[in-house]
Amino acid sequence: MQHRRLGQSGLSVSSLALGTMTWGNAVDVHEASEHVRAFVDGGGTLIDTAFGYGGGAAETILGTVLRETVSREDVVVCTKAGISRAGGQRRVDVSRRALMTQLDASLARLGTDHVDVWLAHTWSDETPLAETLSALEWAVTTGRARYVGVSNYSGWQSARAVSLLEQARVPLVANEVEYSLVCRSAESEIAPAAAALGFGLLAWSPLARGVLTGKYRRGIPSGSRAASADFPRFAERFLDERSARIAEGVVIAAKGLDVSPTEVALAWVRDRPGVTAPIVGVRTLGQLRTALASQDLVLPEQIVVALEDVSG
C-alpha cells in the first residue's frame, strides 16, 4: 500500500481509504470489524465516515471497532459534519453551532478525544462561509481535530476557504469530492485549485456508485445499491448509455490486464493529479480484497489514454 501526504500537510495517509456510508445499513458491526482488520493488515490507514452516515450508526460502529479490533493509533480517522437526517429528510446545517455540536457528538460515538481530519460536509448558501470556517478553526485550536478541510466544494469555494483559513493560520488540507471515470467534473476547477493551493483530493464514489464494477451491465442485481431501499437513487443517475459505455471500456481494459474492473477504475482515480486517495465502500470482505488489490496495479499508458478517450 502506498502512503501519501494529504495535500501539503505533514499527515501521511494510505492511498486507498475505507468508506463507511453503508455501515449500520448494509454492513453490521461484525462485518465492519472484519473489513477494518483486513484493511489495516493490507496497509490501509485512512477511514472516512460522517456524523450523518447511518443516522450516527457508522461512527458508533467505528468506535466499537477502534476499541475491540484495531488500535486507534493504527488508523487515520476522517469524519464530516453539516449533513444529518431528521424524519428521513436530508438536512444541511453548517452553522458554527451545528458543526460544534456535531463534532462533539462524533467524538463521543468514536470514543476518542480527537479526529485526525474533520471536514465541513458541504457548502451552504444559508450560512456565511466565515462562520463555517470559524468552527474548523475552533476544532484545531481546541485539539478536537488535527487537520481540517471541506467536502463537495467547487474550485472557487475551495479557494475562498483556503484564503480565510490562512488568516487564522489554519491550513485547509483536503476537499472530498466525487471523482471517477464517469464523473470527471472535478478536473475543470477543483483539481487545478488543489494543485495551486496545496490541498489534497479525497475521491468519493470512485467506482461511480458501483457502475464501474460492471455489475449493472445486465440489469440491476439484487443486493446492489441500485436495488437497495436505503439508497434508492444513489446509482440511478449513472444507469445511462454514457455510463454503460464507460463501464464497458473498463471491463475490456480489465480483461486485457487480467484484473477486475474494480482494480482498473480505482487505479485510474488513484493516479489522477491531485488525488491523495479514492474512498471505497464495501459490503463484503471479497469486495475489500479486490479494492486492496488495486494498489498493486499500475495502468499502462495506452490503457490510461483509452479510458480517458471513452470517458471524455
From TrEMBL:
Gene Ontology molecular-function annotations: oxidoreductase activity
Domain (NADP-dependent oxidoreductase) ranges: 16-308
GO cellular component: cytosol
Source species, domain of life: Bacteria
Pfam families: Aldo_ket_red
PANTHER family, A to Z: NADH-SPECIFIC METHYLGLYOXAL REDUCTASE-RELATED (PTHR43364), OXIDOREDUCTASE (PTHR43364:SF18)
Stated name of the protein: Aldo/keto reductase
